[in-house]
Each structure stands twice: as C-alpha cells, then as structure tokens.
Amino acid sequence: MICVLTGGTGGAKFVDGLRQVIPPEEIMLIVNTGDDLLWWGLYVSPDIDSITYVLSGLLSRERGWGVKGDTFLCLQAMGQLGEPTWFHTGDRDLAVHLLRSRLLAEGKTLSEATSTICDKLGVKARILPMSDSRVETRVDTPSGELSFEEYFVQRWYQDPVNSVRFAGASDAEPAPGVIEAIVSADTVLIAPSNPITSIGPILAVPGVRDALVRARGQVAAISPIVGNAAVAGPAGILMAAKGLPCSIAGVAKAYEDFLDLLICDTRDARAAEALRGNGLRVQCTQTIMRTAEDKAELARTVLSFMIGGLLSDKPVSGESAARAGSDQP
Amino acid sequence: MICVLTGGTGGAKFVDGLRQVIPPEEIMLIVNTGDDLLWWGLYVSPDIDSITYVLSGLLSRERGWGVKGDTFLCLQAMGQLGEPTWFHTGDRDLAVHLLRSRLLAEGKTLSEATSTICDKLGVKARILPMSDSRVETRVDTPSGELSFEEYFVQRWYQDPVNSVRFAGASDAEPAPGVIEAIVSADTVLIAPSNPITSIGPILAVPGVRDALVRARGQVAAISPIVGNAAVAGPAGILMAAKGLPCSIAGVAKAYEDFLDLLICDTRDARAAEALRGNGLRVQCTQTIMRTAEDKAELARTVLSFMIGGLLSDKPVSGESAARAGSDQP
Question: Cβ of B91 and A91 within 8 Å?
C-alpha cells in the first residue's frame, strides 16, 4: 500500500502518473481540504475533486482542474443573476458539488460523501479527506484575511502575504483511516504540492505529523520547487511567508521531522549535494510533468527510489537511477 | 392593477400573452407552489420558475418550461452519479434553483427569494408565491401517494387518481400581499390552468377563497377545458377525482363561490348557453394559444371583456366582442 499526501495541481499531476504505474487498489490518498469553500451554497472541495477526476479519468488535463469537455452555462447564468463567477464550476462539475452537498446536508461526513462519489465514479483508489472537520486555510494580506481560493483563484495570488493560518486545525481530528494509512503504508509519498497550503493543512491536523514520524515505511517528498522557483503557483511566496527559503532546502526544512528522502529535479543537483552533506537522502530526477508519459515516468522513478529505499539505505542503481541522473558525489 | 392566479403551462402561456398587451408594472401574479420540490437538494418551484422565465423573456417556448437554448450536461452527469434525472433541470435553469436555495438557506422567505430573483432578471411584474409556507399537492393513486411532480413528470400522469390533497394548506398563511392583491385589484383573472392542481392549491390557502368573494374587481376565469377535454395535461382526470365534470360547467363549479365571468372557447358555445341559463356570465372566444399572437390576442380579448365588465354588467359590444364570437342568445 502506498499512501500519498496531496493537494493542488502538482499533486493531481503526480497522482495521474501514479495511477498509470500501480494498481489503484494499492493507492491511498490523503487530500488537503483547507481550500474547501461554500460556493453558491454548495460545498466544494477543490483538491478532492481534482483527485477524484484524475482517478476516474474525468479530469480536464488542459486546465488541470474540472471535468474535461465541460461547459459553463450555469456559471454564465449565475453571472446574469449577479452572483460571483470567479470560481469556475462547470456544468458537469456541478453534479459532484450537488451530490456532495446533499449528502453533507443529510448528515454524512465528508469522508462518507467522498467515498460515495468515488464509488459512483468507479474510483478504486481510496481517497481520504485529511479531516472531516472544517479546516480553513486563511491567507493574511495587506487587504485583509482571505480564504485560499479568494487569494489563489479570485485574486490570482497577487497580494503580498503576511502569514498563513489553518483555522480550525487545532480542534480538528484526522478523518477515519488517515493515521492508520500513514503509519502502516509501505511507502508514504508527499506529492509535489505546495508545502504550505496544500501539504501544510494536512500536517496541521493533530496527529498527522506524529504519524509521519512513526511511519513504518519510508517517507519521501517530491519537491515542487525547481531551481529556486515553484513549478507553478504561489509556493515560493507562501514559503517565504513561513520563513522558508524557496528552494529544495526550504522543502526539506518544511518536512524535516519526518522526511527520509527528498526527490528533486536534476537541475537542483548542486543544492542536493549540500543537503546530502547535512545527512538527508536526496535523489535527483526529471520532475517536470508536461505529458502523460512524463507523469508516469516520474511515478515509476519515485517508486524505484522507494523500492531501493526498502531494500537498503543506499540510492538504487541500474536503469532507473541512471536515467534519473547521477546523484552520487 | 390586474391580479392573475396562475400555475402550470397553460397559465404561463396566458401570462406570456398578457405581458405583450399591458405594462408589466400593472400585473400582479399569485402563483401555485404546490408543485415545489426538493430536487438534488435544491428547492425548485416549477410554476414560479415558468412565470419568471416568461416575464424575463427566458422561457423556452418550444418546451413550455425551462430556459430557452438550455443544455442538460449537469443532468447527464447526475445520471452518471446514479442520481435521479426524471425532472429535467437545464444548466442555465440550475442557476435560479441554486440562488433560490441559497437565499432560503440564509433564512429568506420564498417571497423574498422570488422578489430577489425577479429583480436580478429585470422582471417588472410582481410575482407572489401563494404562500411562504410549504403546501404540497399530494396525488393519491393505487400505487401510493405521489408528489405532483412525481405524478405528472416522473410517471406521465398515467396513474388512476383516487384523490388529491394539499398537505400543509390548513396551517399555511397567504404570502404577504396576496390577499391585498386579490381584494384590491381592478380585475382578478384565473388563468387557464388546471383548476385542481394549479389553482386548487392557491384556493386551499386559508383566506384566499374569501378574498376572491370579497374582491373589489370582477373575477374572471379562462377555462382550461375545451370541448370536454383539457387543452393539455391531466386536468380532466383530476377534476373527475374531485367529482367535477370535465367541462366548462366543471370549471364554473370549481370557482362557483367567487366567479363573475367564465371565458370559454367558442367550441363550447352550446355549453356556455346552458351556464348562462343558470345565471353565470359567460363569454366565448378563441382560447387555444399556439403562437405568440394567439396569446396576445387572448389577453387582449379577456381584457376587453373585463373593461366591459367594469362599465356595465352586460357583455361588451364592438370589435373585440364581435371578433370573440357572438355570446348573445
């Protein structure tokens, strides 16, 4: 069993690769819900939706979110009614929000609603929200405190960021199965997601960090930072707001209490060297995912590192490691 | 001010004519809400929607319900999620259900939500739900008791009908403005709607029948029955279930305590004669509405009858009455 902590579009891309190379039944996903929002009165869970769409084959790969081939007529009509339209919910996409909202209104938990939707869409991997309690990522800016989606989607992450907090986290409990999945997985992967606002909320749920420390399997993170910049999105700005450098060293620092292996891009080979000097296992490979094959290749390489890690503490040798680029001094 | 009691597709067609011939500011509509349903967790009010779409120019005239040019991708996606799809909500149409549901969830009344939606869509006529309380038309059949939409849309009104009741009616109050509108209007029109399940629920709200009796203006009904059959839908079956003949006499009977004038189709001239013998004022005209011009023409003719009624108790003379067909013995 492989347990993946994920959120955002980077995470969705990585999971899109993973599903191509291992049976879905062996994947357990723990998904960020800090971005969840009430939109038009419906409960929308952007990261759970993206992962659900990835695993059901419904994701629009062009956009990286929402349903492929979707239309936006309801959105247009909402605009005509004077309702906000900055969060783009497609007509097909709405179905999932409607069903989830109804299930929640009927008293189901987010875990149960997620499980029902996955069953209906034939998703065989297990998708667990990080928590069934409401944890909200709040971004403090000079214009005031914003929800993550306001900051990210509505305002195009243009605001300077003073700080980030996870409202409700201290009272939240991990969703059923989350701690067990982390502790007992053969391997725990931290997807190349924003460490602050995609993985950060998961880590803020009481018990999760400790479970990662206690994990039976190796814990590896794929860096979303390449060459001192985020591959996409505001990870750099948000890491700075948390006092972390925008580099693989910053990623390593964010996960330092539980990280066994950091997987970074070949372009960061020099920075990787420095981290190894500090005693961290680091592997370099091609991490940029443009095509379906890129995604599958990254997943295969990551898994080969992990199998190596299961067998010995030394980096794997052979084709995968060679293809991934030399990471030996 | 003209006050119209309406429901169903016949009512919507009549209002579509009326809006062509008098300023919308002079029209006050009291609309059936007995068909309202929770659909996918959203509050849908089919008759209010139809009238709102008519008056905003959004109605699909081909279908007689919903928004013109609408698509049904969310419906399709809901089907893929295993949700029911027999009630056809279009993607644009969903916007109104979403907004209304959110307003109701925020504590607004149905009247307030309706008024907000009308404002947003530029509807200048006043649309009042018959009541802000939940009144549900329940149709008892050999297969059990059905909601009106289950009976009408899901099961294509194929079930024999034992009886019809309006659950919640005895505890309901008329929505704000309903009684005043009826009592003080220059003219009250009962649209050519199903007397049992479109007008019946309105009449079942305590105080409405009495207001019609007390009305300052004349009360006229346009018969939805032509030649012993309903122009459309199950009015005949439902009238029979209430012990009323499926004829203009049955319509007259349904409204006998408050009706000043019955307007029926020229094809019912003979039946009209018989009713006149019983002391009811009856006018005959072309009531079948196929084209926009048919609708406008019926509205013009009805108004000419009413103006005549305001001036004297005798039927109007002149062009309108002549065109409408002789109704003199």
Answer: yes
Instruction: Quote the CA–CA distance of A74 and A91 in Å, as a whole number.
Output: 6
Residues in chain B: 329
In angstroms, the CA A28 to CA A5 distance is 9
Sort A269 into a burial class: Cβ within 10 Å, 0-12 / 13-18 / 19+.
middle
Identity of the residue in A40, A82, A95 whose CB atom sits nearest the CB atom of B81: A95
- From the list A41, A73, A83, which residue is nearest B71 (CB)? A73
Condensed to tens digits (0 to 9), the pLDDT of residues A88-129 reads 999 999 999 999 999 999 999 999 999 999 999 999 999 999
Sketch out chain B's domains with CATH numbers. Answer: 1-35+131-329 (3.40.50.10680)
Global pTM reads 0.89
Distance CA A112, CA A99 (A): 12
Q: Which of B40, B83, B92 sits opposite A77 (nearest CB)?
A: B92
Under 8 Å CB-to-CB from B127, ≥6 apart: which residues?
B29, B31, B48, B51, B52, B55, B114, B115, B118
The residues on A that touch B, with CB distances below 8 Å, are 40-42, 67, 70-71, 73-74, 76-78, 80-83, 90-96, 98-99, 101-102, 105, 117, 120-121
Task: Number of A to B CB contacts under 8 A, please give it.
Answer: 93
The ipTM (two decimal places) reads 0.86
